[in-house]
Amino acid sequence: MQKALTYETVMSYPGHPSADDVYRIISSEHSSISKATVYRNLSLLSEEGKIGRVESFGNGEVHYDHRPEKHYHGYCRKCGRVVDIELSYDNGIINNAFPMEDGFNITSHELIFEGICKECREKENDNGTERIKD
Amino acid sequence: MQKALTYETVMSYPGHPSADDVYRIISSEHSSISKATVYRNLSLLSEEGKIGRVESFGNGEVHYDHRPEKHYHGYCRKCGRVVDIELSYDNGIINNAFPMEDGFNITSHELIFEGICKECREKENDNGTERIKD
DNA sequence: TACTTTATTGATAACAATTACTAATAAGGA
DNA sequence: TCCTTATTAGTAATTGTTATCAATAAAGTA
């Protein structure tokens, strides 16, 4: 069943795969799987709360997450990678700061950090001191 | 010049128009304007820091903002409206909480509140007590 | 077992937001 | 005026995603 495959692929993925990432991984083993099936199952799985979904940011790609609970993410504006930010998702902090903003009833929030990820920074440093390779 | 027109339209818009909103408003007066021109000028204006840009959330539409400085937004999951949340954008708070997360160098952040906006809540209440109109 | 109903899938078309491309026009110097 | 640069309209192309739909698989039921 393709849904289980989709689930396994997200769970064993170290980072935050896009739908296309998941598709490419599965189809390397099961070349007959359809892209629509992957999209469909990713949607289902995240609706069921089995996997997490990270809204697109900057580039227009949704990413998925083996951690289903809410937590924060960093978006690298250089390579587009999505990384976990280890801060507990505390709705209380946010809701105390803004109990209700001009009639807007807040139920949740999304906090996305933008910056440069470790890998890209290291690459930058390498280029600064001694050029290894282009 | 169409760029000035685009700018004026965003500045006089009370809320947070999408590119298509801006296009529709301008083309009602200047029917010859092209959609590509509106998209191009909105991108230019936000790159120049003359207008703000609110990353798409939930639905895949970017919104623009007559306020160019960073501030927070609420996204209504019912009607898709984007509203301002009046809290000062304090990078210090956030950056003190996470000076640097596993090598990820944070330069800015985006905080989006999700919930139900005033108008949709009022509509809901109306339907709950006495139905006025469908 | 055979038969019917329900779920899941693959293939592909459709879609929406956005960008790329291009030739035409406008504007601004020399 | 001639030449160069900017800006534009119109349209095609791109991208991520969803809708459609017939084919297949699975599960129940008589």
Task: Summarize the helices and strands and which ones pair or pack.
Two copies of one chain form a homodimer.
Chain A: H1 2-12, H2 19-29, H3 35-47, E1 52-54, E2 63-65, E3 72-76, E4 82-85, H4 91-97, E5 105-116, H5 118-129
Parallel strand pairs in A: 3-5
Antiparallel strand pairs in A: 1-2, 3-4
Helix pairs in contact in A: 1-2, 1-3, 2-3
The structure holds a DNA duplex (30 and 30 nucleotides).
Describe the protein's architecture and organization:
The structure is a homodimer of 134-residue chains. With 134 residues, chain A is an alpha+beta fold. Chain A has five helices and five strands, in the order αααββββαβα. Chain A has helices at 2-12, 19-29, 35-47, 91-97, 118-129; strands spanning 52-54, 63-65, 72-76, 82-85, 105-116. In chain A, the strands form two sheets. Chain A has a three-stranded mixed β-sheet with strand order 4-3-5. In chain A, α1 (2-12) packs across α2 (19-29). The first copy, chain A, is globular. Chain A starts with a helix and ends in a 5-residue tail after the last helix. β5 of chain A pairs antiparallel with β5 (105-116) of chain B. The structure holds a DNA duplex (30 and 30 nucleotides).
